[in-house]
Amino acid sequence: MSKQSKIYGTLANKMRSIVMLLSTVVLISCAFYILAAGESEQIVWQRDEKKVAITFDDGPDAKTTALLLDGLKARKVRATFFVIGEKAEQNPELICRMSEEGHLIGNHTYSHVQLNMLSNSQACSQVKSANDVIKEITGQEVIYLRPPFGEWDHKKDCPQNMIAVYWDVDPLDWKRTDTKQIAADILRQVKPGDIILLHDIYKTSVQAAFIVIDELQRQGYEFVTVEELLFA
Ligand SMILES: [Zn+2]
Questions:
Q1: Higher-confidence residue: 160 or 184?
Q2: How remote is the CA of residue 150 from the centroid of ligand 1, in Å?
Q3: How much is the average pLDDT of 139-143?
Q4: Rounded distance, CA 92 to CA 62, Å?
Q5: 212 CA distance to ligand 1 centroid (A)?
Q6: Rounded to 10 degrees, what is the CA torsion of 37, 41, 47, 48?
Q7: Annotated catalytic sites, by residue?
Q8: Segment among 46-50, 131-135, 214-218 with least mean pLDDT
């Protein structure tokens, strides 16, 4: 074997190894892809199940959130709370209760600001401050963020790397006072896999939540946290 062909042979062997390595990578990637596809199908299938997530923004409030937690406990329902950092600081016992009673706690910024109107560092600081307050109370990392007003600039690259959670059903409970109308509006729209948006700082919203829960449980719905709904 000439030196040149030996080099060629070595190169050919290297090339063969690289091709084999690439094939393996592709095969593994495909396997992951297929698995991922299977998982996403499973998520779709999960969304066909009678499962919904009820979520509450803007709390905690000493009166109305406590009332809500009592009612959720009585109905064996776990909810998701997107809390405001400064209110969490004022009501740490309610944050503790949420955590102990199996609810998921998410971030709704420190002082309820419209994140896309802020500079990158201001927006990230709002997210971080709320995370810090919640973690200080519960000892748990915060993963989920509901941006106030649904406004979040995805170009803002915060080190916190939060998962933004929006909603499917919005009865505009913050500007209505008729409890039955709020509940009827949700019940008219809701379908399996939906995320319902309410605000636990209004007594009317808390009462509407109880009507909705009682009716959906009667229809065979199960209430899960946002995390369970999205990643079960
Ligand atoms: Zn809000």
A1: 184
A2: 8
A3: 96
A4: 10
A5: 21
A6: 170
A7: 57, 199
A8: 46-50
How far lies 102's CA from each of 72, 116, 130, 225, 230, in Å?
11, 31, 20, 9, 17
Residue of 159, 227, 224, 216 lying closest to 187 (CA atoms): 216
Tell me: pLDDT of 29 over 80: no
Instruction: Give 44-62 pLDDT, tens digit per residue.
Output: 445 578 999 999 999 999 9
Which of 104, 43, 59 is CA-nearest to residue 77?
104
Q: Is the pLDDT of residue 139 over 90?
A: yes
d(CA 44, CA 74) in angstroms, rounded, equals: 30
pLDDT over 50 at 142, yes or no? yes
Give residue 100 CA to ligand 1 midpoint distance, Å: 23
Ligand 1 mean position, distance from CA 95 (Å): 17
Distances in Å between the alpha carbon of 203 and those of 71, 174, 229?
12, 10, 26
Residue with token string 């109107």: 117
Q: The tokens of 157 are what?
A: 């690259």
**In whole angstroms, what is the distance from residue 110 CA to residue 136 CA?**
14
